[in-house]
Design a protein that fits this description.
The protein is an alpha/beta fold. It has one domain: Alpha-Beta Barrel (TIM Barrel). It is built from ten helices and nine strands. The chain is globular, with a radius of gyration of 16 Å.
């Protein structure tokens, strides 16, 4: 099964942000317990790479990737830490080239037709649509899909359980990314059952499409 097929099967990609590897592991295990097995560890903390590596090793059942990859150096480091896919908020040629050189799928963020056309001509067929909620939502994705018929999207930003089904109903949407599944308050209070519950809810919505 390709990573794109695994994304389509899951339908949801939760974002994991942590300062401590053990916390990242506990979050990831809680998500897995709720039925979500594709996890994006975002590079937004000083120890994010250690968290990524720890999750990749401790939760082998999950497909673990790196998010918020901004530079080629971060891309190299994330792949070295065990990342099996890369996600960026924007489209950067250098990051894409590193991923292609290593044979690792990369999903750069786009918000316009110009960015999408550049991604298409770099050989990509799946991209992140970000920030989805303020960049036009499902209407924008449908409009872009009419011109770029071979492209698939992973919208992220402004997505929650209340509109997840709406996004997943768009044929060109492969999966949706989201941080609503890992609320900071639940992490701070070690309420991992809350995270498992949110994951189970999202997984049920995704499976019903």
């Amino acid at each position: 099964m390709t990573i794109e097929e695994r994304l389509a099967q899951s339908g949801v990609v939760p974002l994991v942000q942590a300062d401590v590897p053990e916390t990242a592991i506990r979050i990831s295990r809680a998500l897995l317990a709720g039925g979500l097995s594709v996890i994006e560890v975002v590079l937004r903390t000083d120890d994010a790479l250690r968290c990524l590596e720890a999750v990749a090793k401790a939760v082998p059942q999950a497909l673990v990737g790196a998010g918020t990859v901004l530079t080629a150096e971060q891309a190299e480091a994330a792949i070295g830490a065990g990342s099996r896919f890369l996600v960026s908020p924007g489209l950067d040629d250098a990051v894409v080239k590193v991923a292609i050189a290593h044979g690792v799928p990369v999903f750069p963020g786009v918000a316009t037709a110009t960015e999408l056309q550049r991604a298409y001509n770099l050989g990509l067929r799946t991209v992140k649509f970000f920030p989805a909620g303020v960049a036009g939502g499902t209407a924008m994705i449908r409009a872009l899909s009419s011109a770029f018929r071979g492209m698939k999207f992973m919208p992220t930003g402004g997505i929650s359980a209340s509109n997840l089904a709406e996004y997943l109903a768009v044929p060109s949407v492969l999966a949706c990314g989201g941080s609503w599944l890992t609320p900071p308050a639940a992490i701070e209070s070690s309420d991992y059952r809350k995270i498992t519950g949110l994951a189970a809810e999202a997984a049920a919505i995704a499976q019903s499409r």
